[in-house]
Specification:
disordered C terminus, 10 helices, mainly alpha
Length: 317
Amino acid sequence: MGAKGPGGSWSQRQRVGSRDVGEDERGRERENLDQPAWAFCLGRPASCGMGAIGTLHWLRTGGFQLSYERWWASRQQLQDVSANAVALAMCAANNQEVIALDSNPTKPCKAEIELNERRLLGLLDTVCAIIEWKLSNGQPPHPSNDVTVWEDIGAHLHPDDLEQLRKVRHPGLWCFDLLFTTIHRGQMLGVYSGELASGMFERTTSMLEGYQFCEMVQHQPNPAPFAVHLRSILLVFCVSFPFTIIGQISPTSLVLMQSALSFSLLGIEFVSREMEHPFGNDESDVPTRKVMGKTRAAIRAILWKHSSHQESVDWIG
């Protein structure tokens, strides 16, 4: 005989406890049978799904930040190229104006000095046109990023330089090399002091660095294998996540939750993908044609303002 207590004998309490455990197990089995087979097979703990949401959101937010910095850095570099080109044109034109005010008609090399300055301005205009052509892959821009007047490459080059341009394989590097040569030639002719020539060399170098940075961004996207795998994981997650919470929330809440998650994760992925390629013919791309068009217009305006004899620069435009 087992000892009796307030709740009955020990064997009686053991039978009652076993019966309660059996009823709980049968209840869970009935719940599992009520769920569809595909939901049971694909179902995972909801805590795992929540952890995956946090991880994917963190990865895509970081990717979005990197893509945005990539786009904005490209825009800044292009603007720096434009500012340096206009500054170089001002330096050259103002020195040309000083020479033009010299009333001594016998000044040595005066014609050569003027020709050197005008050649420099024509090269700056051509460099801007080549940069736009290279970064846009020769494609027309989006109408919102287009300009009213856009002249052909080399439209303001000296005829001798234009003939050489048609023969070179790398017109951009050729123009920058000739820019350095023209600045050095001006220094040798006594147009630029050592300090001024040094500043012009520095600005030309900054232009070249900005141009090559934009080229690097254009031809080097984010690591392709990592990006492709992450997008695949993201799509699989967005499709499979609803199965992890079936039976835990109402159908309406399930639809709303899945819509919000998919819009958030896939929306961030789409915007990041667009900003990975800053240069192109989309409306949201860097407006290369508009920036370079304004720069070329400024160079032409500077040239005509400081020209002493308009008829002598007909080859400039």
